[in-house]
Queue: 3 jobs
Job 1
Amino acid sequence: MHVIDAYLDACVADLDRAVVDGLPAATSVFFGGGTPSLLPADALMRVLDHVPRDDGAEVTVECNPDTVTPGLLRTYRAKGVNRLSFGVQSMVPHVLQSLGRTHDRANVETSVREARDAGFESFNLDLIYGAVAESLDDWRATVDAALAVEPPHISAYGLTVEPGTPLADDPARHPDDDDQADKYVAADRALAAAGLDCYEISNWARPGFECRHNLLYWSQGEYLGIGCAAHSHRAGTRWWNVRTPARYIDAVANGTSPTAASEHLDEGDRRIEGLQLALRTRGGVPRGALPDDLGDLVERRGERVVLTVRGRLLANEVALRLS
């Protein structure tokens, strides 16, 4: 059997086992962790068919603009997908090339148009800033081009260096902190002016289009991850699956747990983590959770304290002051 078919079969079997064990109906479902849109739409939707979910649950599929077709989108929509997340990264050709991406601005514009034609009102454009080939003007051009298609949601993440990647092995290509800060501020200004509110440090949305699945993470909600390297959380315990498809397939086929490792947070650690996550959102944290000497890094809104734009740039440092 082809490894893709075997992997999807394992995902379905793992889900069915979870349902037997009492898996509750999901309020949101997110297909990510790569490029799910590379799979035949019917094959991916076979997995979705085995997910118990509430009426009106948010169901998102990550898509590469190069792999989107009208037929694929129609199948998604017919099967219950109601949100898409396009991996755009940049709208500037030489920046896309430096990131190893093959699509272009026209692909993105076509994908968005086809998504709307298929009935999708909710979708995200995922952007990345900080590539060494990207000037501030390049980044502004990307943000402007993204806003031109009038998305209801934009995510913008600074390029990060992950150990063991080609980027990590090439210091000349590592992002510059000051450059990334300038680009973050430029993006926030442009997105706010276009009516997208920053509801989490790296996420902006029009009212009503916030990603419910991500809000679940940021509020320490419970979730189940299916597939290799997927993470799960329940009652303060987090666990994650084996990293390779072959090991995941074997574990499920043998009736053993695909869990690679786990960790449990005690009550104190869980409280601090909850504050750290809340600090990243527009709801902020209770006034007593931070000292009064943080100057223009925070602002007080009633009984809550939220990060200013400058505070968002230094969020990790502010988080160290939580108590």
Note: The chain has a mean pLDDT of 95.
Job 2
Amino acid sequence: MAVEERPINADLPASKPGEKPDGQALPATKAPAPRAAKRRRKPIPTAIKAIAGLFLLAFVFIVAANLGGRGGDGGGSEAPAPVSEAPSTPAETPASQAPEELGYPAFATANTTRVGGSDPASTAAAVALATYPSTKSSQQPAAVTLVDAGDWRDAIAASVLMAAPLGAPVLISEAGGVPEATAQALDALDPEGDKRTKGVQAFAIGAASAPSGLDVKQVGGGGTAGAAAISELRDELLGGAPQHFVIAPAAEPAFAMPAAAWAARSGDPVLFAGEDKLPTATAKALARHPKTPVYVLGPSSAISSDVVREIGKIVARVRRVSGEDPVANAIAFARYADGDFGWNINDPGHGFVVANSAEPLAAAAASPLSASGTWGPLLLTDSADTLPAALRGYLLDAKPGYTTDPTRAFYNHVWVIGDQEAISMSEQAEIDELAALAKVGGEP
């Protein structure tokens, strides 16, 4: 159905999301190695300092805008306000301030910030430093999570370790070594471990390598078994069952990507299922918590109704959240609400994250942005040059507006993930326009 291109006034009530009912032994982790002698903190590289400082500045402006928009109580007289919308012309950041290969957003606008490294490792490093500037100890994470660049399932599932109270951002590693961007980020973040992580400084998932000098907990597995092992680790660290499970398609990464953002925001583990088969590791993980509700992410073409019914025989409640393609699927998840499950974002005043559906590691790399700052769902584009009509319509539905005073309005902010080969400058500019605050009613 065509979407009317009109700004939505922040004062209008939010539309109610719908829900779609659908009838329907873990691998042991290795014991932590004896704790190595505490590493001497290295000086933070100049490039990393620049990234962290500039990201921190961006966060200050975003948070200040949101606090200003939510601060009015409607009482008292209002100061005179401009009647026209301020321009939101994109402004290019000087490349000399921070190198593009380390993920600094070389192109930012009034309503968007790009994090686009030359590879997933540099993008993840930049996101981690945006979340934890690490200029003082209170800004450092207790631990980080290292995932293998060759296993997107492990990466998406590991996003759950970013959720409170653990707060362990995802960094990209490899089976054969640690990428330079990841090593530099680790030096800057300097995780020290604490009671929340049981002293562990880094969780290494599957084949992911970890640098020496860290107290590392290796989490075995890989693929569907790796996700189950991560779920077990989450239970061990938090000492209890999760509120919900998300089952994502094991063979359809684009449909699974939005689960990473929700896992980081909620602490709900991500498990995987095939189109026509429920893996043994997933079934065993569900059987450990039969009273925990399960939400299947993706259409029946990715996870069949037979699999959903099989899940229903293990747990008391299972429902499906889906769209017919990855773009629509991500929007459906962003809109969805069922009790305390789901983003339920159907109105202005939120953060969003946009990535290309062809890059599943970007979902894990960006997941800390959904658990900090402007907390928002992951949305997808399937083109580097053209914004999908469904995504444009959704952003129009959530477009913020004001009637008299823009300083008392709600604001949207969008993180754009990836370089220009993933999302072009022109597409980012269109996203900026859709996120911009607009005047509603009265004189133009």
Note: Residues 31 and 217 are 7 Å apart (CA to CA).
Job 3
Amino acid sequence: MMQNPVKLRDRVYFPDGAGTQTPIFATYDGATVALASLPGSATKARVALAYKDRLVLGGDPGNAADVYFSPLEIDGGPPAAWDPTSKIGTTAEVTGLAGMPGQILVFHPSMVERIHGSIPPGVDLDSDMYVDTLTDQVGCVMPQTIVPWRENIIFADERGVFITEGATVRNLIEQGSMGDFWRLAYGHKVSGASVSCGIFLDYLCVSIITLGQEYPITMVCDLNSRTWMRFSNFAGTCYIPSEGPTEEQYVGNYFTHKLMRVAPMFTDELVSISPAPDYIDGNGTPVKGRIITGFNRLSKEEGYSRLRNVRLSYSHHSYVTPLATQGIQILYRTTPPTPEELDLNDPSTITGWTSAGYIPDALPYSRKKLPIGKNGFGVMIRIEATSSSRTSRIYSCGIERTLQDRGKDTT
């Protein structure tokens, strides 16, 4: 499969990612799951969509640019014979489909088109559908990245992660100043279905399985603020939204072939155990946060400074283990990294970091300082937890400095 299955009424449809057979559909009577294939009159689609009580199919290798429409449920639904004239031709190969109010987005490798209307072509039908172009600048070849959010559709290609309300297209990667990182990460992905997206609350999760696979990349975007962060130890291959009493996303694990849950990573689940345990991933790995700042010149005007100390306001502690004397490590650089020093998989491998030292766990709010004692035009700080914890909060980070040579400059 190239995408999640599609649910229409009481059936779930599974398109064949290779396009060698018509989609399979499943029904469930409360006790038994029954499987069957759509009739031979249906297309051998690779992508599918439920739209206005019809199953919409596309990406048949033999008719890659056509979009096909099933009979309505009152006429037998998708399992009934398909009308061969109930189709619309588009400009290029169909690689994904998404539904929006009054229109269908049709994705191609380098463009996105729109099918407007509600009545498809067919025998004895007066169709109101027509095709136009949404954008010819970007496209999508991985339908597992196409996800809805509110009244928008999100999708990804080699240029970034895009959001559209059906009229304009914006790049979330560029809005979050992550363009260089995205292009590097996308260029290192493995072949096949290696990029996938999912929505939880107002967060977008984007997983990329990279070459070597030691460091799968999962990026998380706060869609309200357009800011990005990263999850480690999370090798996602597909995101499956739930329809239960609470919101959930189930994610396939690339390495273990098991399902992971997204909700516990965003919501602080209440525990009845006292004392509360440390946060541990499902595979037993302690959760240890890391923050890396950009290079900060510390002043609007260029000037050489004596960087004396770094001060951190924080709270980091466990309830089940003794307070660690080395709970958080602080490292720094006095120059921004060059491209040769960057590491796609693990920013901790950037060369040129100097350790300022460690600060202990702190149960209440605390503020500690560590010496730097270096001269520079600015500073870049890395703060990372080194011990497991139940609470880990970074409130502020400051640099104690003295200007060295601004008195020699005139403006």
Note: DSSP finds three helices and 30 strands in the chain.
